[in-house]
Amino acid sequence: MPRIIITLGDPAGIGPEVIDQALAAIDLPRGVEVEVLGDRSAGSPGKPDRRSAIAALTALHQAVEQLKNGSADAVVTGPVSKEGLQAVGFPFPGQTEFFADAFGVTDYGMLLTGNTLTVGLATIHEPLAKVATLLTEDGIIRMGLLMAGFLKRRGVHFPEIAVAGLNPHAGEHGAFGDEEIRIIAPAIARLNAAAVATFSGPSVPDAIFREAALGKIDAVLAMYHDQGLIPLKLLDFDTAVNVTLGLPKPRTSPDHGTAFSLAGKNLANPSSMMAAIHLACELA
After folding, report:
1. 227 and 179 Cβ atoms separated by less than 8 Å
2. Tell me, what's the pLDDT at 205?
3. Residue 203: its pLDDT value, please?
4. pLDDT band at 56; cut points 50, 70, 90
C-alpha cells in the first residue's frame, strides 16, 4: 500500500495545524502509511523568520530524497512562503518548479482541481506583462496532453477540455490581439489530431468557466495564472488541490498559502489539505 509523506510547510504558518486537523478528520484508505516531515519547533505561529524558512526548505529536500529512493509513493506539500524561501537561497518561483527541477523534468505543468472546476495553466508564475511572449504552440500542447492524462487517470474516458483565449472575447478575430489566431488555434488543432481528448476553443475567457462550472466540460486550459485561479478560488477555495503534472510520483498541495495572520488561532480551514491528502492517496 502507498506511503504518503507530507511536508509541514513553513512552521510559522497554518501548515502544522491544518495537517493535524486533516489527519484527525479523514479516513485514510486501509494500509496507507503517512509521515509528516518538518521541524515544528523551528517557528513561532505568525512570526516567520529565517529559521522557519530553512525548516520548510529542509523538509522539501527530505521529501525529494524519499521519493527518489522509493521509500515514499507521493508527497503532499504544506504551504510555504516563497519570499522566505528565496531569502535562504531557494532559486525557484514556487514548489512546482522545485520538484520539476529535482526530478530533471521539463515536461511538467500546474493543475488545480476542486469540487467544481479543474483548471490547467499554460504559463505558471510569470509576470502578466510577459505572458503573451511566453505562450507557444508547443507549450499549450504539452499542457493539454498532461491534462488529458490526468483526467483519464481519474476515470474520465475521453475528456472534453476547453482552451481559453488570452485576450478579451478571445481576440474577436484579431480585433483585440492575434495570439488566438497565431498560437492558440493552431495548438488546439494539433491537440485534436492527437485524438486523446476533445479540445475546444479558443474559448471566450469571461464565459468558459461558467460552462465548466455547469459540468458541460471537464476542464479548462487557462493561458495564465490568475485567469485560471480567480474562478477556481472563487468557487472551490476550500476544496481545491494543486497538482504538479509530469512528475514520476504524485505531488499535491492545498490551494492556499501560509496565512501567517491566522496561524496559531485555530481559525484555519483544513478542507483543502484534506482534499490534497485524499488525492495523493488516489493517485498513488
Report:
1. no
2. 95
3. 98
4. very high
Are the CB atoms for 74 and 283 separated by under 8 Å? yes
Predicted model pTM: 0.93
Give the list of residues 6+ apart from residue 133 with CB closer than 8 angstroms, or none.
none
DSSP designation for 8: -
Q: Please answer whether residues 202 and 75 qualify as being in contact, where contact means their C-beta atoms are separated by less than 8 angstroms.
A: no
Cα pseudo-dihedral 31, 111, 220, 149, rounded to 10: -60
Triad 137, 190, 149: Cα angle to 5°: 90
How far apart, in whole angstroms, are the C-alpha atoms of residue 207 and residue 95?
A: 30
Q: Is 3 helix (H, G, I), strand (E, B) or coil?
A: strand
Q: Would you say 159 and 197 are in contact if contact means Cβ atoms under 8 Å apart?
A: yes
- Asked, as a colleague might, if the bond just before 16 is cis with ω within 30 of 0, I would say no
DSSP string, 205-243: HHHHHHHHHTTSSSEEEESSHHHHHHHHHHHHTTT-EEE
